[in-house]
Design goal:
The complex is a heterotrimer of chains A (290), B (357) and C (303). Chain A is mainly alpha-helical and 290 residues long. Helices cover 73% and strands 1% of the residues of chain A. Chain A has a single domain, classed as MetI-like (MetI-like fold, Orthogonal Bundle). In chain A, helix 1 packs across helix 12. Classes of the chains: A mainly alpha (290), B alpha+beta (357), C mainly alpha (303). Chains in contact: A-C, B-C. Chain A: Belongs to the binding-protein-dependent transport system permease family.
């Protein structure tokens, strides 16, 4: 073993590790550090305030509203998106050409820029001339205000998120369904299992790792929603769609309260961290049927 | 051409000793087969010769060079792997050529070598195909060609036929034997299949639990096993072994205690027409396997269950039979399983039926 | 499950006392299955409409005059397609510049990622070295940290390095990819040891084994990752928005989002024309290599 043999693996991982350390690992600690200071970005001095930023945040009604909005948005998006996509997966899990086209169609929004989707849906949800109001008019409903009214704004964003995400989730579910060996279905049918029993006793348990995976990554994703809000509502009307990342963005870049925004960032880190830990816990003792 | 010497080789994986103090001489130009059950250390031994594994202690010599510190590529050894290990991203030509290129063989020379070798193994029409598009047998030939083209001193084959179907396996067996004759190179071959070992090797090394049980020619191994393990490993069905205590009416003179006796299934004579001096076992036929030219019976006697093989005789229909094993066909083993060469019968009985069970 | 149905069919057929009832049952079942198939086809069509109509609507709007967009109920096909909207959208900002930036940034990120993830994932998959567990831990932690979480400290960092409003500032944070390393490491691990050993016996140097044998073996995964990475960074809005304050390094998505500020709210025809510019190339690429792209994105979920 020469020295080079020993150093080789380190030199191979070094570039990647440096990038990660500088742009991912270090910033986490820097953000936690900043969250304990009062700083406006331009002043040369940072004032240490301890946990004051957190106390301020948690007593601030606006922030509590933001937390509620984010949680509501997440719960609605995740349940609707995974629920719908499970149904779609069971329906569309077929190999023929036409089903392939349908799968492609429902997946297509996933690769489109969120900018485009936000602009497109702003127009679709236009209260006066939008296509959506025309469609619901066909069914005899009144025009809705969609994004322009606090009662409907959050659910409108959820609709956009579900429209964008359901295709991806469906295809992941389909992949999960296809990884279940066909012979256990054959065995079940020889055992005269009814379709519903087969689904509950075999398909669902075999699919549970996929369900966990999708629920958690959808949750992590939803907690960080930003683009649609920045383009479609800017947090309004009357804060009804203000969510965590948008809040951090505004306090950091509009009001220059760096410490305060960092503290909000730490709270988001905390939430995402817990979700990630749950995910890996489930993953490590996840029910392996393969 | 080369002889290989392994001098007190040991191999440990972490705390587990896989091979302990192994000494072996592989003769120049021989077709040596290492055979044993899985986990016996035969593959590890082979891989240490190739240099893919490093022994924990001991020396490996190829010809007069100690290759302990020689990297695998420079040992002048070529290997055929169990799963062929063909480079899937290269054509057949690329696969054969890769080692030559690395050796720095000139282009014109390479082309000549590839042409020759592909004709020998019958791959000429497939040179520009990728391995994925070849059949199992063709892939096997590519692996052989890739090894042969380097003109190595030693050929190492690690269960190369185990992925082929039975018919192709037999065919490749013959081809490999012919190939060895033609090349005259030392072949070291690993298999767990004793039939393969017997049919191919001119020298067979039986291994178990990291130790060599016996190294001999196939016929010696069969007729003169050194211990219980070899006796039972070689031959189908295996040698019948009985506990000495369960066998009645056998007076054996030996300077060491006898633990077991054994006999080959084909040496048991069923209801012999003439009187034969031997051990008589009476029992009941449990199963009959008719293979055409030969029939195999499983028989339960008071001394235990054993097999008898009869050639060119009609299938025995009676349930109760008497089996006689000539005394000179009996093998004796000590309680530790070692063969007792000095043991002899001192009280002979004439088998006539009804005598002592 | 089909087999089960068939088994039940035979059971009922054999159990029915009269042939007439049996034919009636068969007829009824045929009609039912016909209706079901019709419903199924209608459902599939509706599904396609839900996902395709918004895009059609976008195209339709992008070819309308402003007054035409305000007709309600809306018209699908504009009387005289107004191609000028595209020119107007293009002229709201330095779009050629945005486009160049988008290409420079996405391609640089892709190249850098390839250069960093291939050796790193190979080392993690194939070498044993002291501290590899810890270093891979760094990769896994990075995999879990979303950009949205750390943009503030990274912004301050980039500002300290004087990298705000530069291409480098938008490239360097993505010079490597934890996801890529994760994917490739799996792929490298699945290659059998025998192959490496064969190459070693063929006297190949380590770098040659990597370049000539290992990397070609994982090409499908590399292509998958490249598609994923390129589309993600081509589409990215958040990072360029946060890390730029002027036009120097801004990309296409920012430009499109800015049309609204330039043209004013309500000019949906211009806005949708701009949107078409952003969406059309990606959609074309998508329909050309749909299989690979779907694999690229769904891979993450399956493994």
């Amino acid at each position: 073993m020469t020295v080079w043999h020993k150093l080789r693996p380190y030199s191979m991982v070094a570039p990647a590790i440096i990038v990660f350390s500088v742009f991912f690992i270090y910033p986490i600690f820097y953000m936690i550090y900043l969250s304990m200071f009062d700083w406006n970005f331009v002043s040369p001095t940072k004032d240490f305030v301890g946990i004051q930023n957190f106390v301020d945040l948690l007593t601030e009604p606006e922030f509590r509203q933001v937390l509620t909005n984010t949680t509501m948005y997440t719960i609605l998006t995740v349940t609707l998106s995974t629920g719908l996509s499970l149904l779609l997966a069971l329906w569309l899990n077929r190999g023929s050409f036409f089903y392939g086209i349908v799968q492609g169609a429902i997946f297509s929004p996933h690769i489109i820029s969120l900018v485009s989707i936000s602009l497109l849906w702003s127009w679709l949800m236009d209260p006066e001339y939008g296509l959506l109001n025309w469609v619901i008019g066909l069914f005899g409903f009144e025009k809705l205000q969609w994004l322009s009214h606090p009662d409907t704004s959050l659910i409108s964003l959820v609709i956009v998120a579900v429209w964008k995400g359901v295709g991806y989730n469906t295809l992941v579910f389909i992949a999960g369904l296809q990884s279940i060996p066909a012979d256990i279905y054959e065995a079940a049918s020889l055992d005269r299992s009814r379709p519903w029993t087969t689904f509950i006793k075999l398909t669902m348990p075999m699919l549970s790792p996929t369900i966990f995976f999708l629920v958690i990554i959808n949750m992590i994703g939803s907690f960080q929603v930003f683009e649609t809000i920045a383009i479609m509502t800017q947090g309004g009307p009357v804060n009804s769609t203000n969510t965590l990342v948008y809040y951090i963005y505004e306090y950091g870049f509009r009001f220059f309260k760096i410490g305060y925004a960092s503290a909000a960032g730490v709270i988001l880190l905390f939430i995402v961290g817990i979700l990630t830990i749950i995910y890996f816990k489930l993953l490590s003792n996840r029910v392996h049927y393969r | 051409m080369a002889q290989i010497l392994l001098k007190s080789i040991s191999k440990k994986f972490k705390d587990e000793t896989v091979i302990e103090d192994l000494n072996l001489e592989i003769k120049d130009g021989s077709f040596t087969v290492l055979v044993g059950p899985s986990g016996c250390g035969k593959s590890t031994t082979l891989r240490m010769v190739a240099g893919l594994e490093k022994q924990t202690s001991g020396e490996i010599w190829i010809d007069d060079i100690c290759v302990n510190d020689t990297p695998p590529g420079l040992r002048d050894v070529a290997m055929v792997f169990q799963n062929y290990a063909l480079y899937p991203t290269m054509t057949v030509r690329g696969n054969i050529e890769f080692g030559l290129k690395n050796k720095g063989v000139s282009k014109s020379e390479r082309e000549k070598l590839i042409k020759d070798i592909s004709e020998i193994v019958g791959l000429a029409p497939y040179l520009d195909k990728k391995p994925q598009n070849l059949s199992g047998g063709q892939r096997q030939r590519v692996a052989l060609a890739r090894a042969m083209v380097k003109k190595p001193k030693v050929f190492i084959l690690d269960e190369p036929l185990s992925n082929l179907d039975a018919k192709l396996r037999n065919q490749m067996r013959t081809e490999l034997i012919q190939l060895h004759k033609r090349l005259g190179t030392t072949f070291v071959y690993v298999t767990h299949d004793q039939v393969e070992a017997m049919s191919m090797g001119d020298e067979i090394v039986v291994m178990n639990k990291g130790a060599i049980q016996q190294a001999d020619s196939p016929m010696k191994l069969y007729q003169d096993p050194a211990n219980l393990f070899t006796a039972q490993f070689i031959g189908t069905p295996a040698m019948n072994i009985m506990n000495m205590q369960d066998v009645k009416g056998l007076g054996v003179r030996s300077d060491r205690p006898v633990g077991y006796i054994g006999f080959r299934p084909e040496q048991g004579l069923m209801n012999p027409a003439q009187q034969v001096e031997g051990l008589v076992l009476e029992g009941e036929i449990l199963t009959r396997e008719s293979l055409g030219a030969e029939n195999i019976y499983q028989i339960r006697s008071q001394a235990g269950v054993f097999f008898v093989k009869a050639f060119l005789k009609p299938l025995e229909s009676a349930d109760h039979v008497s089996i006689t094993v000539p005394y000179n066909r009996l093998f004796y083993f000590g309680p530790d399983g070692e063969r007792l060469y000095g043991a002899e019968i001192h009280a002979k009985h004439v088998a006539a039926g009804g005598v002592l069970i | 499950m089909k087999a089960a149905n068939r088994a039940i069919d035979i059971g009922t057929a054999a159990g029915s006392p009269l042939g007439g009832i049996r034919t009636k049952q068969i007829l009824l079942r045929r009609i039912m299955s016909y209706i079901l198939r019709l419903l199924n086809a209608a459902g599939l069509l509706l599904l396609i409409l839900i996902f395709a109509l918004p895009f059609v609507w976008m195209l339709s709007t992008s070819l309308k005059t402003l007054p035409e967009t305000m007709i309600f109920p809306p018209e699908w096909i504009p009387h005289h397609p107004v191609w000028r909207n595209y020119i107007d959208a293009w002229k709201t900002g330095p779009f050629l510049h945005y486009l160049t930036n988008s290409v420079i940034i996405s391609v640089s990120i892709l190249i850098l990622q390839m250069l960093t993830i291939i050796p790193a994932s190979y080392a993690f998959a194939r070498y044993k070295f002291v501290g590899s567990g810890f270093l891979f831990g760094v990769v896994m932690v990075t995999l879990m940290i979303p950009n949205q979480l750390i943009f503030l400290p990274v912004y301050l960092e980039l500002s300290a390095f004087k990298l705000l409003n530069t291409h480098l500032g938008l490239i360097l944070p993505f010079a490597s990819s934890a996801f890529g390393i994760f994917l490739l490491r799996q792929a490298f691990r699945q290659i059998s040891d025998e192959l490496l050993e064969a190459a070693r016996l063929d006297q190949a140097a380590e770098w040659k084994i990597i370049v000539r044998i290992m990397v070609p073996m994982v090409k499908p995964v590399l292509v998958t990752f490249a598609l994923f990475s390129f589309i993600a960074h081509w589409n990215d809005y958040f990072w360029p928005l946060v890390m730029t304050t002027n036009e120097v390094a801004r990309t296409l998505p920012i430009g499109i989002a800015k049309i609204r500020e330039v043209e004013g709210v309500g000019t949906w025809n211009i806005l949708m024309a701009g949107n078409m510019i952003l969406v059309t190339p990606i959609l074309i690429v998508f329909f050309l290599s749909q299989r690979n792209i779907i694999k690229a994105f769904v891979y993450n979920g399956v493994k």
